[in-house]
Amino acid sequence: MKGKCSAKYILMIILISLFTTISYSVYANVNKNVDKDTQKKILIINSYHFDETWEAQIFSGIKEGLSKEFKNVEYNFEYLDSKRSTLDLNEIKKNFTSKFKNQNYDLIVVCNDEALMVLNQIYNDIFLDTPVVYTSINKQDLKLGENLEEHSVGVREQFLISNAISFVIKTHNNVKTMNFMLDNTVSSKIFAEEIKKLQSKYDNCKFNIIQCEYINEALEKTEGNEKNSVNFMYGVYKDENGQIIDRDTISTIVYYHTKRELYTWSESWLNSVVVGGPIIEGIKIGELTGDLCYRILNGEDVNTMYDISNSSFKYVFYYEALNNFSINMKNLPSNSIVLNHPSVLKKIPMELKATIILIIAILTLLIIILLLRIEYKNKLYKQALEYENLRTEFFANISHELRTPLNIILSTLQLNDMHLKNGEIVYKNDAIYKRMDALKQNSRRLLKLINNLIDITKIDAGYFALQYENINIVEVVEDITMSAANYIERKNINLIFDTEIEDKVGCFDQDKIERVMLNLLSNAIKFTPQGGDIFVNIYDEDKWIKITVKDTGIGIPKDKQQIIFERFRQVENLLTRNQEGSGIGLSLTKSLIEMHGGELEVKSEIGQGSEFIIRLPIKECNRKCVVDKNTINNPQEKINLEFSDIYDD
Ligand code: ADP
C-alpha cells in the first residue's frame, strides 16, 4: 500500500517537471536570444515619397506595435518615389548596394506592391536572409524569389471595389457613367482589372477606366454628362511640365471639369472636394503590420508565420463635400464617419469649452445638493406630518376620555340641584352652596375646553361636518343673544340688540351659529368693564347677512388683531393676562364661519372697544340634513357652558 502511494507521487513529480521543462523550452525558443534593450535597426522601403498620408499611417502602426517592448529602435527610410518617376531597377540596385551592402538590418519593411517588386530583384544581392515584412500588397499573385519567400511575411489587401461601386449606385440611382481616375501604379492596375470584371454585373452603368500620366489627358478621357456621371479618385497625375500635382488640386480640377460628385476608396484622397466612400484604413493595416514586426523581432521564425489578409474598411465622408453635392447625411450608412463636421461644440474655443464644462459641473452639483435638500426636507416634513397626525389622534382620544367622566360629574351635580330643589337634600352651611357652584362652573369650563379641542381636532382631520337646515338666522341670533341678557346685565354691562330685518331664512347649522355668538359675547363680557355696553346688530345685505358684536371694552392692539384668530394665541401672555381662556375660541369661531362660506373680521381701538363682524351668505339648503339633536338644546345650559370661563366678581 505504502509502496503504491510513493510510486504515484514519483510519477506526479516526473510529469510536473516534464511539463515545466517543455513549457520553458517552448517559451525560451520563442524568445530565444531576444534582448529587448539592444538597438534594433529597421529599414522601411516606401515606393512613394515621404509626405504620403498612407505611409505615415503604416509607420505609426509599426512604431505603436514595437514601442510596447522595444524602446531602442532605429528606423531608416528609403523612398522609391514611384509615383513621380518610373523606376529604373539598375539605378536602384546601384544606389541600394552603395547604401546598404554593409548595413545589418534586423528587419526590412516594404510598404506596397512596387516596393516589394523592387526588393524581390535585389534581395539576394543586398539583404540576403534579412527578415522582411511587406504590407498593403494588392497583387495577390506576385511571385517572390525562393529566399525572399522564405524570409518574408506580410499584410495583403483584399479590398473589393464592388463595395465602392454598390455604395454609389445606391446613393445615385440614375448614374449612367462612372469615371475611375486611376494611374499606372501596380495597385491601380489591379483595381482596373477588378473594375473590368465587375462591368458585366452592371448593364446600365458604364465603367470608364482612365489610366494615364497627365491630368489633361485624364480629363479628356472623362465621360458622361453633368447629370448622370460620377468620378472615383485614386490615381496621381502630372501637369504638362511633368510635375506631380497634389491630390487637393487634382480633386478641384476634376470637379470643375465634370461638375460631378467625386468618390474614393483611398484615405489619401479624402479632402473637402471629395465626398468619400468605403475607405481602406491605413491605421488598421499599420497595426497589423506592426504586430508582424513585433513578432519577428521577438524571435518568432518568419518561415512559420502566415500572411494576414485585410478586407476591412470604414465609411468615411467629408462634411463640405456632402454639403456641396447636397447629399443628405441621414442616407449615409450607419456608423459612417463624417470628417470636419462643424458641430457646435467643435466651433467653441477651448477656453470657453472649459468654462462651459465648469459651469455645467457646478450647476449639476448645485442641482444634486438642491435635490438632496428637498429630499431631506420632504423626509422631515413627512416625519412632522406623521408626528402631527399622531398628536391629533392622541388629542382626540384623550379629549373623549376626559369628556366622559366630566359629563358624569356634571350630571351628578345637576341631579344634586334637583334634589336640593325638591328639598330632598338640605345644606346646613351656606358655604357649601358656594362650593357646589364653583364645582359646577369649573366642570363646565373644563367641558367647554374639551369640546373646543375635540372640534378643532375634527376640523383639522376633516371630519367635522356641519348639520345644515333652513333656519331664520335673525331669530336664532336674537334668541341666543337675549338668553344671555340676564347674565350680561348681572355683570353690570348693558346689552343692546338691534336688527334691520326680522326674517332671513338660510342654510345654517343652528348649534354652531349659537356657539359663534356665545363665544363672541363671552369675549365681549370678559374684556368689557362694568358699566360698559355690548351691541349686537344684524344688517340685511340681500344675499348676505351681517352680524356684529361690538363692545366698549379694553380693545385689541393693531398688531395683535390678526393673531387672535390663530390657535392658542392671546393678546396677553399667560403671566400678564387677567382673564381666563385657552386661546382656542376665536380660531374655532372663524373656522365655523368659514365652513358656512362666510367671513369674520375685527375692528378695534385700544381703550375704545372691539367690533367683531360676521358676514354669512344666504342660500337655501338643497336637501335637508339629519340634524343631530343630541347636542345641548337648553339655551341656558349652553350659556353656562360657553360663559364658564368668565370670572364672577
Ligand atoms: P380665549 O379663550 O383666550 O378668550 P379667544 O380665541 O376667544 O380665546 O380669544 C383670543 C384672545 O383675543 C383673547 O385672549 C383676548 O386677548 C383677545 N380678545 C378676544 N375678544 C376680545 C374683545 N372683545 N376685547 C378684547 N380682546 C379680545
How does this model look, in words?
GO terms for molecular function: ATP binding; phosphorelay sensor kinase activity. This is histidine kinase. It comes from Clostridium senegalense. It is an enzyme of class 2 (transferase). Pfam families: HATPase_c, HisKA. The chain is elongated and about 155 Å long. It is about 45% helix and about 15% strand. The protein has helices spanning about 1-30, 55-65, 90-100, 115-125, 145-150, 160-170, 185-200, 215-220, 245-260, 280-295, 320-325, 345, 350-420, 430-460, 475-485, 485-490, 510-525, 585-595, 635-640, and strands spanning about 40-45, 75-80, 105-110, 130-135, 150-155, 175-180, 205-210, 230-235, 260-265, 275-280, 310, 315-320, 335-340, 470, 495-500, 505-510, 535-540, 545-550, 600-605, 610-615. It has a six-stranded parallel sheet with strand order 2-1-3-4-5-11. A five-stranded mixed sheet has the order 15-17-18-20-19. It is α/β, with parallel strands linked by helices and about 650 residues long. The longest helix has about 70 residues, at about 350-420. The relative contact order is 0.06. It folds into four domains: about 35-160 and about 280-310, Response regulator (Rossmann fold); about 160-280 and about 310-340, Rossmann fold (3-Layer(aba) Sandwich); about 350-430; about 465-640, Heat Shock Protein 90 (2-Layer Sandwich). Adenosine-5'-diphosphate binds near residues 527 and 553. Adenosine-5'-diphosphate binds near residues 524, 554, 564 and 572.
